[in-house]
Design a protein that fits this description.
The protein has 5 helices and no strands. It has 178 residues and is mainly α. Helix 1 packs across helix 2, helix 3 packs antiparallel against helix 4 and helix 3 runs parallel beside helix 5.
Length: 178
């Protein structure tokens, strides 16, 4: 299609301009569609994580009780943040991190400690499943961008140590009762 104007632009072929504008508009629409799909996938992923965390949390909370669960969660978060801070100071990074993923990794550590040290607490959960879950979570963090892996590892270690300590205390308490 040729559009012509009278005056200075008389006879000027603008079809290439129109085609460029249409292509640009289509590219923008495609980009928006991709962003919408990404947002929907992110929401679905977050919903899955939330659902998993809820069942995971209730499984640990059933064994520990509300107060011990809260203490384990907070200790894991504090340990994760301290580990992250130490790493950032050593690496001379001036980046702040936010989030609760370190504390959640701490709960993974608690679960691993119990599975390895006190199988009676959670007989339905196997060490293989817990280790696979932790490995996949760590892999996901190390392959993604803008993830504070020092916090994840710190939370995992803190949770494992706190869970191991709690397991030892519970075993001693059981032995005294017998």
């Amino acid at each position: 299609m040729t559009i012509s104007f009278s005056g200075l632009a008389s006879g000027l072929d603008t079809s290439s301009w129109v085609e460029s504008l249409v292509a640009l508009k289509q590219a923008k629409i495609d980009t928006l569609e991709e962003e919408k799909e990404t947002v929907l996938l992110s929401k679905e992923t977050l919903d899955n994580i939330k659902s998993f965390f809820t069942s995971f949390r209730s499984m640990i909370e059933k064994v520990t009780g509300h107060l011990q669960f809260l203490i384990l969660y907070l200790l894991s978060g504090i340990g994760a943040n301290i580990c992250s801070l130490i790493y950032k100071v050593i690496a001379m990074e001036r980046i702040a991190s936010v989030g609760a993923s370190g504390a959640i990794f701490g709960l993974d550590g608690v679960l691993l400690a119990w599975i390895l040290l006190d199988r009676r607490s959670m007989p339905d959960v196997t060490p293989k499943r817990v280790i696979l879950m932790i490995a996949l979570s760590l892999y996901n963090g190390f392959t993604a961008q803008n993830v504070d892996n020092a916090a994840h590892v710190g939370g995992l270690l803190t949770g494992f140590l706190a869970g191991a300590l709690l397991c030892m205390i519970r075993k001693q308490k059981r032995n005294r009762e017998v």
